[in-house]
Design a protein that fits this description.
414 residues, alpha+beta, three-stranded antiparallel sheet, 12% strand, globular
């Protein structure tokens, strides 16, 4: 049976991907044939709000003050003209390599320096404001987009956009929604804001796009998810530390050699991503890349499914409809890949580890998720929640993550 699992996983993924035939690539991206299992790509749109880091390039700061930087001999290089000297660009604080001691605290936690001012910008205030606007604003346009043929790209009257996810069935809308609220419960701010909406072609919100609604392959008055659409995003390649057969992300000198502060801030977000995808059993991101290694040895060097980066360096975890419900349903086919990714990781964000420990001690991860979901989402009763079996799987995977963190602390803790 174990020998059949990779083949079953492939069949499962191919069936899943057959519904993801439509996607739009951002300008300047590689051809679609060069990507592996790409299911959603971004288009240009200014985000409404994003928390930005405070660090600035020394040269930019000097120019802002109207001053200058006087280089020494080490900061000069010969220019094109005979005997001319040109200043070399000075390294920025974020581009300087840090020692392992500057990157890691207490053996297994990203240091405050590596994890300060997290660039992900989906704060609680931002999410609440976006949800209110998404639930109350009228739709001006509804067009094909957001990957799956049954999904749509919506434009509100104020010009902002949202991805309307109908999915293959309501379970995928549920998985997308619960994954979002689980990210909030864990303090992971990399998942775009989301709200549920009941489609009513004659209702005030949907009236202007009623013809598009009637033409869509939707059931009558379905519950769909509206997720915040972001633009100016770039694709992301997995770091070398997380590629099989190279290094790992453990607090060892060989794994952290030449890591800069900028890179450390991104690696801290990758550590959250691995824990998040493990907890939700989302196979439509990193796990699918590991499966592809069987026939494509360089897949990890290409853009990662459903992952993007903002101009300020925040990773954005998009398209999470494979999480929790569907991911748990097909978990036997994918668990080996989730386990493989988890083994590469032994450095964590302190706050994420703390929240996982709290969920472990409470023995009620599903109950806390349900409470947040019901308090935040008016349409939660209409969409439903996890089955009792899946609620227990969520607790089991929470306990496994807590145990993994404790094992790393026993090995590397100080």
């Amino acid at each position: 049976m174990k020998q059949l699992l990779p083949g079953l996983a492939l069949l499962s993924l191919l069936g899943w991907l057959s519904f993801n035939s439509e996607s739009a690539a951002p300008s300047g991206s590689p051809p679609a044939a060069a990507k592996t299992f790409r299911t959603l790509l971004a288009v240009s749109l200014r985000p409404e709000q994003e928390q930005e880091g405070q660090d600035q390039d020394q040269g930019e700061e000097a120019r802002r003050r109207g001053g200058s930087l006087a280089p020494g001999r080490a900061g000069l290089e010969r220019g094109a003209g005979p005997g001319s000297l040109q200043p070399l660009p000075l390294p920025t604080p974020l581009s300087l390599s840090l020692s392992p001691g500057e990157l890691v605290e207490q053996g297994v936690y990203w240091s405050r320096r590596a994890d300060r001012s997290p660039p992900a910008g989906f704060s609680e205030l931002h999410v609440k404001r976006w949800q209110h606007r998404a639930r109350s604003s009228r739709l001006l346009r509804l067009e094909r987009g957001c990957g799956r043929p049954s999904n749509r790209l919506a434009t509100f009257t104020d010009g902002s956009r949202a991805c309307v996810r109908y999915g293959i069935n309501p379970d995928q809308v549920l998985g997308e929604s619960l994954s979002f609220y689980l990210s909030r419960l864990l303090g992971i701010r990399n998942v775009p804001a989301l709200a549920l909406s009941r489609v009513n072609a004659n209702g005030d919100q949907w009236l202007r796009v009623r013809h598009e609604v009637q033409a869509a392959p939707w059931a009558d008055r379905p519950v769909v998810s509206l997720s915040e659409w972001l633009g100016n995003l770039s694709e992301v390649v997995s770091p070398a530390a997380l590629r099989p057969g190279t290094r790992s992300l453990h607090p060892l000198a060989r794994d952290l050699a030449n890591v800069t502060e900028r890179e450390a801030r991104e690696l801290a977000q990758w550590s959250d991503l691995i824990l998040f995808d493990y907890l939700t059993a989302n196979f439509d991101r990193l796990a699918s890349n590991l499966l592809s290694l069987q026939w494509d040895s360089r897949v990890m060097e290409r853009s990662t499914n459903n992952l993007h980066r903002t101009p300020r360096g925040a990773l954005v975890f998009i398209d999470n409809e494979a999480g929790l419900v569907h991911g748990y349903r097909v978990l036997p086919m994918w668990d080996r890949y989730h386990d493989s990714l988890l083994k590469t990781l032994c450095i964590f964000r302190r706050d994420t580890a703390r929240r996982l420990a709290e969920l472990h001690r409470s023995r009620d991860a599903a109950g806390q998720l349900l409470a947040l979901y019901m308090a935040s989402e008016p349409l939660a009763p209409q969409l439903g929640f996890l089955s009792q079996e899946h609620a227990q799987m969520l607790q089991t995977r929470t306990d496994r993550l807590h145990k993994h963190i404790q094992q790393c602390k026993a090995k590397y803790g100080k």
